[in-house]
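Worked Example 4.2. Read the sequence first, then its structure tokens.
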Amino acid sequence: MNFDFTEEQTMIKDSVSRFVREEYDFDTRRGIIESDEGISRKFWSMFAELGWLSVPFAEEYGGFGGTVEDIAAVMEELGKGIVVEPYASTVVVFGGLLSASTNEALKSEVIPSIIDGSCMGSFACVEAQSRFEMADVATTATACDGGYKINGEKTVVANGGTADKFIVTARTSGSQFDRSGVSLFLVDASTAGVTVKSYKMMDGQSAATVTFTDAVVAESQLLNTTGEGMDLVDQVMPQILMGLSAEALGIMATLNTLTVEYTKVRQQFDTPISSFQVLQHRMVDTFMACEQTKSMLYRGLCQAGEDDAHELSKTVHALKATVARYGRLIGEEAIQIHGGIGMTDELNVGHFVKRLMMINVTFGDGDFHQKKFNQLSYSA
């Protein structure tokens, strides 16, 4: 089987790689994080001009018409620079849900604005009590004149402070833990009754708590049939998790490279520590961990083109569990081998590790996905 990228994918990948290498160094990233918004609008406009924001969207909306393989190519390179601009939350997650929506009018209205960079979006799905179970929804959407009235609170909404629109999970029927009865609404951040409180996360990314108090949205803002929102989420989640895993893979590869380079210049007993056999063994272990993660990601990318949702779900759960396990191994080894300086904010190693830790708990940690994988395996 040929695992080489196509010519178009290679061009996109090289374009992102060149940007990270030439314009997004560690000091530039730190400056962006310390700014008021925590992102660079200038770079976001550049992403739009270079066509990166159009990658996964259909050509009828002005997109590139790409696949999950194209998303993975972009996300891996963005991971190598731990880019804080909201590509994952806006294009992969928010955009992915919109693309899968059955509301054609909504898609025609919003997707072009994502592509041209004028709209940033986020998926507001996590609640204080829900942990990783997205079907645990206490936020309610009650029918009223003109549409629905939403009440509730969403936490850890990625890049919520800069988002222009939210896709919100809200319960239109059933009890709090029912999978059915959850609906997806597109809500403008400026809607009356929507309050956004932004804050920084440990990895430098921003998030927000979004509160809805009698926020009225029209029925036309439903992404699909009332009460069937989780079906749409399940359809898009494999693409989302593979995109995040590709970002993690880029981080792992970079940490391995940084660590090997450091061992060649760090000396003990008048000799580079790269000559110490015990460290060589540890670096081989981290190299193999990275390669196994890549293999699992590529397996998922291959299955994404097949018509077997059950097997794809199993692979994606296994992939996320693999990222959690090996991401921790590679991160801990990188910090240990660098020594005390690896723990400081002045060195980029710790920042890569923190981003890996955040990816681990996004849409479920390793234990959560291992449990899901086991359930699917036993039910097969």
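Now turn to a second chain, presented in exactly the same format:
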Amino acid sequence: MNKNIFKNATPYLVAIVIFLVITLVYFSPLLEGKKLKQHDIAMFKGMSKEISDFRDKTGDEALWTNSMFGGMPAWQVSVQYNGNLTRYIDKILTLGLPSPANYVFLYFLGFFILLLVLRVNPWISLVGAIAYALSSYFFIILGAGHTSKAHAIAYMAPVLAGIILTFRGKYLAGSVLTALALALEIKAGHLQITYYLLLIVVMYGMYQLICSIREKKMVHFLKVMGFLTVAALLAASTHFTNLWSTYDYGKDTMRGKPELTKEAAVKSNGLDRDYITNWSYGIGESWSLMIPNAKGGGSAMIGKSKALEAAEPNYRSAIEGQNAYWGDQPGTSGPVYVGVIVVFLFVLGMFILKSKIKWVLLAVTVLSIVLAWGRNFMPFTDLFIDYVPGYNKFRAVTMILVMAEFAMPLLAFLTLNKIVKEPDLLKNNMKPFYISSGIVAGLILLFYALPSTFFSFLSANEVLQFRDLQKGADGAQYLAYQENLEAVRIAIFRSDALRSLFFVLAAIALIYFFVKQKLNQTILISSLAVLILIDMVSINKRYINNDNFVRAKQAEVPFQASTANKEILKDTDPDFRVLDLSVSTFNDASASYFHKSIGGYHGAKLQRYQDLIDEYIQPEIMSFIDVLQAKPTMATIDATLSQMQVINMLNTKYFIINPDGAPLPNEYAFGEAWFVDKSILVKNADQEIAALGQNDLKNVAVVDERFAEQVNGKTFERDSFAVIRLKNYAPNELSYFTSSRSEQLAVFSEIYYDKGWNAYLDGEQVPYFRANYVLRAMSIPAGEHEIVFKFEPRIWVVGERVSFASSLLLILLVIGTLVYEVKKSFSKK
């Protein structure tokens, strides 16, 4: 009996070992103590430094950070939800592997489980998991540091596996697997990927509904939906804090409803259409699914490529520095390549698979590709933005290709399983095989022979640039350069087309000889595994290889303090802001690593702060840069600084212009808080933001009329002896000392956010309100007082209790179900 157990378990144990070996060999520098250098991880360390420092110092969560965009909730930055116990399961499943090897191992494991649930041969499931996990995009995002995205992608497959198992009648096991996988999926913290998974699940659910209606099994369908609803609610409740806070916060961010009238005109109920579709896959670029360099590789220089031989010698040096990507996205780190062998098996499956699930997978694939076109197929994109709930909350529509990367290998290895299980299916009718071979191999050969007929080898912007350049006196020379550049890019394209042709013909030959009984099953499966491994790894190595790894210390401390940073750090003032003009202010977190910054790096800024950037901060910055470029005197600089009212009200005490030089101090910064002489009431957000440019903000507070009761009937007399100063600073608590002879109106240089911030006057909670579009304000009675602002969101207290109870229940259910299934399995034997 023990021998039988070991024999039955062999394929699964071998699969785990192979997944582990591939992962560790690929990321072998991790074994040397090195770490992958990842841009977004460096940015994450910058944006979360204040939070992590506070956690290390106190053991508590800050829940708010002032290191970015003047201040924002930490929900979407770096909060550790310790009430959620599923984090321990995540660690177990990843075998304690270091990042990013842990995510790749999960890619393998998750898809392997899905194929097994679909009753695919374990050895074929192993090969299918390899093909899926090594999809180029899944590795490219790791190189960029999009680890939460990778984490979420890894759990897509087991979520669907649980749902399929439940529809198979395994109500308990299926719903518990669904709950566990979905809990881990949500834990990954990338709602956009989870949203795309939801689209797949909805399409699969519609398929099951249609089948249930036709087969008159609606009772079964409703029973499944009941189990899955409970599973989804349990999974979501394990992340109660995170989901509640994200929902609550999202309404106030760029993804929420705009407050300015002019913004509402260009926005959907979520993000701007242009922002959503800025990264849109070109229609011709979709062929990268089977030819990696259909539009080139990543946005890097062509370099010393062999393809340069296609250009005349006198142009080669200049072409080396040209973009190796010629698609129409603003930029990209590499193509979405699922593997030409996967594409072939996918096409073949559409001919030979009888299961209607193939139509679901085809629909998922087509929908994914078409929506990825974004602005290149705007009518369809508009349809989803306007009418599909939630779609307008996410940007970078190219990301939706993860649905195709999921569906295509799934259908491909259902197809291979069918061929291996029923070889006579093709042997008795080779026509589908020949047609599929002709479609895939024939198209590649056609593209290779006539590349310019089917593809453009210049981006849309390059076409316009060359058109303008060729109108000048040197037009002929620019035309020759363009032709040479296109020749090099054609050579790059042809090289990859030939490469894809080799791999697909090799796979076609293997399947042909297997069908003709010239090869056995073992040789077929192992040979395809080797082909897929070589194909996919060699592409991925273009984007992540040993050169991308650095010493651990360099990755852990991504930013080194510059001369300017060191000088600013000498200032003992506990709370002021810095404007770093030496980097992309609103798309870089290096300043946040050292200081409290008015800029930062985050995709979910508060909408009002973004409005402030667009209306005032950015124009003030540009005006200041113009002055600097004109070689001004200090008097001119001072005059300019004094006019930068919005930057000053944000208490921007230092400017970094040259990181290797001294910072520029700004004596016109308003400070942590100040008293104003009067307030003016405005009717709405439009008037409120306009009034910032029409008033002296050092002496006047602009207040929305919804807060009128806080200022009406009050007279705020100027008191030259009045004092207000910050006593103590922490990200989630600020205390001030104030003294005055009469009632005063104070404006605090802190971002207003009423979903958690409470104000206390001498220990008693008091109201406060919003002023100057984004800041806090309150009336303070005469005398000496202590004012304390505390960030105390109810979400945190309630949410963590619910998360703990739900995650504990889920873990107990998982253990109980495993024990039950094992006992049942042994009782049958």
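Notes for the reader: DSSP finds 34 helices and 21 strands in the chain. The chain has three domains: 81-250+545-558+798-829, 267-519, 673-792.
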